[in-house]
Amino acid sequence: MIGIGARLETSGHGADGSSVAAAATAFEAAGFDSVWVSDHVVQPRTVESDYPYSADGKATWSTEVPYLEAVVAMTLIAAVTKRVEIGTAVLVLPQRNPVLLAKQLATLDVIAGGRVNLGVGAGWLAEEFAGLAADFAGRGKAMTESIEILRRCWTGFPEAFDGASYTLPASLVSLPTPARPIPVLVGGMSPVALRRVAAVGDGWLAQVAGPVVDLAALEASIAALDAACVAAGRERSALRIALRVTGAGERAAEIAPQLPALEALGISDVIVSGPTDVAAIAALGATLTAAR
């Protein structure tokens, strides 16, 4: 059965501990299977970088709003829920120290009882990389190496690693280990991203505009992923495919009639833009869970 997830709002002047906690508990009570948070550490006052998910390449939001840090927000969600999976859609991996992140996520997964999913992306906002003294040009290689380091650290006794972006010394101990292997879902729709999914991902975190999904375009992207998996010597059926549908907002219920078709394409999870009002969350959950 296809899983139903929601992107929980963690940005804006109304985003605080009480609003996040209330929304998280409401999503769980409404029957959602997962909740997801987005990620920006810093943003420029004026965005000059091309935004890859709009037709004109322009960012559509004000950057001068509070943006709760993703791992901290996930920890709050873990504390007030018991069943729903908790994930990032997506966390910009090349901006972070992978050893520290491995520790944070292992700790969170222990606290949450094995409910953490890590959706990662290479990032698109060059100004954010500059603010974090991270290498924007080398972000693709850094992301691949970071995934390797995360997995090594999650064993508790990581083997040494010597890469182009990171070096991991021998004889380190990184405990606790996660409650279960944390799935790493690689985001992106480009051919490069799909090859990375096939090479190193536990799954693919796709993103399309909604509320009505272009099924033909999505099927073409899945076919491209199939080809990338063949080239990598992997079975695409082993990958979890989560689909984030943006731009739906309060119209997310329009996705409901499409759920059977999405499941038939191999989508395991659909993530919608969740409302913030508790009553609206309950109504949306009823609509979506009844449609699958």
Jot down its keywords.
single chain; 292 residues; alpha/beta; TIM Barrel; eight-stranded parallel beta barrel; two-stranded antiparallel ribbon
Q: Would you mind describing this structure in some detail?
A:
There is one protein chain. This protein is an alpha/beta fold and about 290 residues long. The chain has a single domain (about 5-290), classed as TIM Barrel (Alpha-Beta Barrel). It has 9 helices and 11 strands. The chain has helices at about 15-30, 70-80, 100-110, 125-130, 140-155, 190-200, 215-230, 260-265, 280-290, and strands at about 5, 35, 85-90, 90, 115-120, 160, 165-170, 185, 205-210, 240-245, 270-275. It has an 8-stranded parallel barrel, surrounded by 5 helices. Strands 6-7 form a two-stranded antiparallel sheet. The longest helix is centred in the C-terminal third of the chain and has 18 residues, at about 215-230. The termini are close together. The mean pLDDT is about 95.
